[in-house]
Amino acid sequence: MNKKEISEIKKLFTTTRCAVTRICGCYVDAEKNQKTKLKEAFLSLPEEEMFKYFNIFRKTLSGTLGKNLVQMEFPLDQEMPGGTQEFLLQLRNSELKDDTLIDEFYQKVIENYINPENYYIILIHGAYDIPAKASDNLEMEDASDYVYEFLLCSICPVKLSKPGLHYNADANTIENLIQDWIVDTPDIGFLFPAFTDRNTDIHNLMYYSKKPDIIQTDIINTLLGCQIPLSAKTQKETFQTIIEETLDNSCNFETVMAIQENLSEMIEERREDPEPVVLDKYQVKRLLENSGVENERLEEFDELYESVVADDNASFVAANVTSTRACEIRTPDVVIKVSPDKTQMIESRVIDGIPYLLIQATDQIEINGIAVRSPLAEPHDDPEEEF
User: Fold this and answer.
1) CA 210 – CA 224 distance, rounded (Å)
2) Relative orientation angle of helices 99-112 and 84-93, to the nearest 10 degrees
3) Least confident interval from 220-229, 275-284, 311-320
4) Which residue, 180, 185, 149, 188, is CA-closest to 52?
5) What is the mean pLDDT of residues 319-326?
6) What share of the chain is helix, strand, coil (3-state, %, to 5)?
7) Half-sphere exposure (CA, 13 Å, Cβ side) for 143?
8) DSSP code for 117
């Protein structure tokens, strides 16, 4: 799924285009006890509740693609009878009307979801009559050949509201605020099947994680049956290791800066693309080659890559391995941050045998918010005025 396809599904979570047919929910306490359940036709809910659920559903499809949102593929063994894919298909095809399947789903979540606090499992069924698109990319509402049936699961922490004072309008007094349990934004969730090329893709699902560096291993392995992807943090650390070990003694300032500049250019050039920039093994090697890495080091790249990356088919989302906001240069005592498109303002030099990082100065310099005069702006004595 790309950004446009995700956006198309998110638009279904509104009152005007609602495609949600049924909603089920299970409130679980910290001891893993099921406290209460919900099962309703979605449109029978009060409008105020619908709006709050819509916000949760949209949040489950929000964040950075390749970081918070990761498309996961079912291994072949999970597409066989008895696999996780078959269970999710049965759940979807039941339109959430089979209590036995729903209870089995809740139990699988409770057994595998790691959370020491209370939480709320929300599961919805939806049916989207996919409108065809004309050559000018406009939707033709009356022209549709396919219906996309899906499940969306959101698992939301339930937290006690903060204590405080509030105004009681009826009594016209300031009173103690009674604390209550509040459903928070989703921690994790998934959309099944994926909506790929604007159609049903039962071989994939879209997984959401509010904190992408905290991986719910058991949920992904047992409930979904998908291979655990590299987290954004792990992608960055693995990429850094590949660079350092490939360059070895030639891992100098100029080469690393060239790699960062090339990565930033790749991301900027494809900023409008719905798909994120992804680097596989061969594209990483080409990146190093274009950044001036010597052929001697590239000859050992394949072997080094395989020693660092367990899965030869693993890939890196470019936005996960470099910052698009600032290039950070760190020493034990100083941290320099510069916009990725201004990295040429910093250079490395050795002066009198001592290495220095030089920053090109302008006439606008501030120290803790205090404007100081640049050396270029300092007044100089005019030799013609001297007597």
Assistant:
1) 18
2) 140
3) 311-320
4) 185
5) 85
6) 35, 30, 35
7) 6
8) S
Q: How far apart are CA 182 and CA 233, in angstroms?
A: 30
DSSP annotation of 72: E
What does the alpha-carbon distance between residue 296 and residue 304 come to, in Å, rounded to a whole number?
13
Residue 108: φ, ψ to 5°: -65, -40
**Could you tell me which of 180, 183, 147 has the C-alpha nearest to residue 163?**
180
Mean predicted confidence (pLDDT) in 96-107: 97
Residue 137 and residue 127: Cα distance in Å, rounded?
A: 22
CA distances in angstroms from 165 to 162, 174, 176, 177, 178, listed in the order given = 10, 7, 5, 5, 9
Pair of tokens at residue 360: 């090109």
Of 25-39, 40-54, 194-208, 282-296, the least confident: 282-296
Alpha carbons 7 and 88: distance in angstroms, whole number: 23
Work out the pLDDT band at 387, boundaries 50, 70, 90. Answer: very low
Residue identified by tokens 């029978």 is 44
- DSSP H or E stretch at residue 149: strand 146-160
* Burial (0-12, 13-18, 19+ Cβ within 10 Å), 283: middle
| Residue at 284: amino acid letter | V
Cβ neighbours for 385, distance < 8 A, ≥ 6 positions apart: none
Joined together, the tokens standing for residue 171 give 């009594």
Q: How far apart are the first and last CA of the chain?
A: 78
Count how many residues are written for the chain: 387
Give Cβ neighbours of residue 185 (< 8 Å, ≥ 6 apart).
56, 59, 156, 210
Of residues 268, 273, 260, 243, the one with CA closest to residue 329: 260
Q: Strand 335-338 to strand 327-330: parallel, antiparallel, or no bridges (unpaired)?
A: antiparallel
